Amino acid sequence: MSLCEGLLQIIEEQAGKQNYQRVLTVWLEIGALAGVEQEALIFAFEVVKKNTLADTARLEIIPVRGQAHCVDCDSAVEINARYDACSVCGSYHLEVTSGEELRIRELEVE
What gap in Å lies between CA 52 and CA 109, rounded to an integer? Predict the structure, then answer.
């Protein structure tokens, strides 16, 4: 719920700066490693947006895959969880390079 309240606060701040009155669609990037339950986020957004400039807005989720760099074999690998092993060499010495995102990618406004 607090993520959606923060999202709505950002949208309202931008409305004041960019002079729009209504939000039609919110595209939100969510990384596989962000620790966000998408169904819960969608439900919370529906609750939080009531009687706001985003009252009729659709929330579109853009999934971002988890990626990491293996320090041992210097490979770029896809990961599904933070503590996955390298799919090339089996090492657990990975540095996450993407998949932790939670950001507004785009807004469709009037």
Answer: 13
Q: Output the six-digit token pair for 68.
A: 């990491």
- Rg of the Cα trace of the chain? 17
CA dist., res. 55 & res. 34, Å (int):
26
| Sequence-ordered alpha helix ranges (H) in the chain | 2-18, 38-48
- Span 82-88, average pLDDT: 95
Q: Where are the beta strands (DSSP E) in the chain?
A: 23-31, 58-64, 66-70, 76-79, 94-98, 102-109
Closest CA to 47 of 5, 12, 9: 5
Tokens of 15: 């409305």
Q: Please, which pLDDT band fits residue 52 given cuts at 50, 70 and 90?
A: very high
